[in-house]
Specification:
Blueprint (H helix, E strand, L loop, with lengths): L1 E3 L22 E24 L9 E11 L3 E6 L5 E7 L3 E14 L13 H11 L16 H4 L11 H15 L1 E2 L10 H7 L1 E2 L1 H14 L4 E8 L12 E8 L3 E6 L4 E2 L4 E7 L8 E7 L3 E13 L1
Parallel strand pairs: 7-8
Antiparallel strand pairs: 1-3, 2-5, 2-6, 2-14, 2-15, 3-6, 4-5, 9-10, 9-13, 10-11, 11-12
Length: 306
């Protein structure tokens, strides 16, 4: 068994659903994420990129992290372009199963809704993004192509004096009401255009749609991958979860979860962010041999309010 040892690290809502998540409680979350591949024939030289290490931030304290791999593997790590810690797992020997288990203990802080901010305040922020080469969260990406997504999804365009915070909470609520959460209705390859016709899917689809709308309106927005402690109140906790972080001038990056109509608060544990899903996919890799195989993923998040 290969093991990576513990890593220690340091308003009023306008949408109805937000009232149930603006909590003053701190959350202690224990996470267990198991990915297991099984092959009919032996596989070898398996190379995998693993993005399961929760980030450490002002809102989120990472107390411990362990990565366990069977069979024995060579493990290294680096920070990607967006700052996420990526583990590289290489299994050289022949094997018929590959098991990758991530364990983490995280303390999260509640997040309050930002104060009203005029939509026009984004003008200066966008200028700074262009000067600093950070336009990737404003322009099209492989899974969030250019398009008139506000019109496609029936979203009214705000004016420069309209409140950006209220717009984002209302948009989160609109998409929550407009779409149906239905696992199996889409796949990781489903496009925004296809989802706009289906109107049903999973958190990845909800998130890509909101990203397209935000970027088309000039709101810097990024895709977030992480975990969710649902407590039986929310959906999307059976695997890694996805939500949007939008940049609000004077406040910073704030998470909005259109799948559950909530602000991404203490029950959302962030792993990392990128332009869209491929930038933060949890586990991906290549191997030789193996033949036809199967994949099983199990995620458990145990939460306790403090």
């Amino acid at each position: 068994m290969a093991l990576v040892p513990a890593a220690l690290s340091p308003g009023t809502p306008s949408a109805p659903g937000f009232s149930r998540m603006l909590s003053p409680e701190v959350m202690r979350a224990e996470i267990r994420h198991v990915t297991e591949y099984a092959y009919r024939e032996p596989a070898w030289d398996s190379f995998n990129e693993v993005r399961l290490h929760p980030e450490a931030s002002d809102r989120q304290q990472l107390r411990s992290f362990h990565l366990l791999v069977e069979p024995d593997a060579s493990i290294s790590s680096h920070r990607d372009y967006f700052g996420s810690l990526v583990h590289h797992v290489h299994v050289h020997e022949r094997h018929t199963t590959l098991r990758i288990e991530a364990q983490a203990l995280v303390i999260t802080q509640p997040l309050l809704l930002p104060p009203p901010t005029p939509f026009g305040a984004l003008d200066e922020v966008r200028g700074g993004f262009r000067n600093e080469g950070g336009t990737e969260f404003l322009v099209a990406s492989p899974r969030v192509p250019s398009g008139d997504w506000p019109q496609v999804f029936g979203v009214a365009r705000p004016g420069p004096e309209d409140d950006l915070t209220a717009f984002l909470t209302d948009l989160t609520h609109q998409l929550y009401e407009q779409f149906s959460y239905q696992p199996g209705a889409t796949s990781v390859r489903t496009t925004i255009q296809e989802f706009s016709q289906l109107q049903r899917g999973v958190c990845q689809d909800f998130t890509h749609a909101m990203l397209g709308i935000c970027r088309a309106l000039g709101i810097p927005a990024r895709y977030v991958s992480g975990y969710l402690y649902s407590g039986g109140e929310m959906v999307g906790a059976e695997a890694t979860h996805a939500w949007v972080e939008a940049l609000i001038p004077g406040t910073g990056w704030i998470g909005f979860d259109p799948t559950n109509d909530v602000l991404a608060g203490e029950k959302h544990i962030k792993i990392g962010h990128g332009r869209d899903y491929p930038d933060v996919s949890p586990v991906r890799g290549t191997f030789y041999g193996g033949g036809q195989g199967s994949l099983d993923v199990e995620v458990r998040v145990y939460g306790e309010a403090r």
